[in-house]
User: Fold EAL domain-containing protein from Hyphomicrobium album.
Amino acid sequence: VKEMGRGTYFFYEKELNARMQARRRAEADLRDGLSRQQFELYFQPILDLQRFAVTGAEALLRWRHPERGMISPSDFIPLAEQCGLIEQLGSWVVREGCRAAAQLPADIRVAINLSPMQFDRPGLVRTVAAALEESGVEPSRIELEITESVLLHDNDVNVATLDELNDLGVTIALDDFGTGYSSLSYLHRFSFDRIKIDHSFIRDILRNEGSLMIVRAIVMLAHSLGLVVTAEGVETDEQLAAVRGEGCDSVQGYYIGRPMPLADFQVAIGNSRGA
Ligand code: C2E
Ligand code: CA
Ligand code: CA
Ligand code: CA
Assistant:
């Protein structure tokens, strides 16, 4: 321990400096990307199982980086949240998502992801209201996806914010259901419209009885509370048959369609209607 003392200290200090520098670079890069408009929304189709038709899409953020290529949101959203850029980025997503919805047929809905950290700032409700107005899109065509962490710690402020969003006429979905803190108490504290079953349960649904039972229980719970259920991450026709058999209302996943640029999504829904 003694020999390690000072040397280790210098080593850590060096490493810490290097890491801080790397992070500052990444942060500047992100800021740059925002001002240079390197972000895009991709759209992944959502198939309604009752009508067996695509009735919506989830907007998923992409960063088209000039050197690093297409970067997926899990690689930069956490950084945006840490360095305070999520409000700006998140507002852009809301505006762009509404703008896209306005360019799609009136029976197609668009789901937009919100970071829990967007709830920490005032102005979220104003941002959404402005985006709705700017785009002229019917509010009921917009769904906001939040995760359970928004409602953690009995957060009354966030529940109030959700109520205000709900009053704008948009719908609210609870994303990644089953993976979070799994307190069911919040389910009736706010009137959600939809639960999205996390893809991890769908991935295992055919080979793990436990996953199947969890999907079954979530569908039962959701339906008895008057909510609709979307199964995420459906990759095969067997999985589609399974979630359909369990009573899921809609599905999303590579088997239905990958996330794609808006123009491709417009072509895809046009084709599926025989247009
Ligand atoms: P999420 O909201 O759960 O979105 C679904 C993710 O699953 C997407 O990853 C999608 O591409 C992927 N996915 C869809 N179908 C399948 C499938 O069949 N199999 C597998 N293995 N994956 C599938 P993506 O686009 O990389 O996004 C990752 C996460 O980043 C999202 O998870 C969401 O939490 C976050 N995110 C994406 N866009 C936004 C955004 O605009 N704002 C915020 N705050 N978060 C976003
Ligand atoms: Ca989502
Ligand atoms: Ca509602
Ligand atoms: Ca999800």
Remarks:
- The CA atoms of residues 166 and 172 lie 7 Å apart.
- The pocket of C2E (ligand 1) is lined by residues 44, 60-61, 72-74, 77, 90, 93, 113-115, 175-176, 199, 233-235, 253-254, 259 (CB under 6 Å).
- The chain has a mean pLDDT of 92.
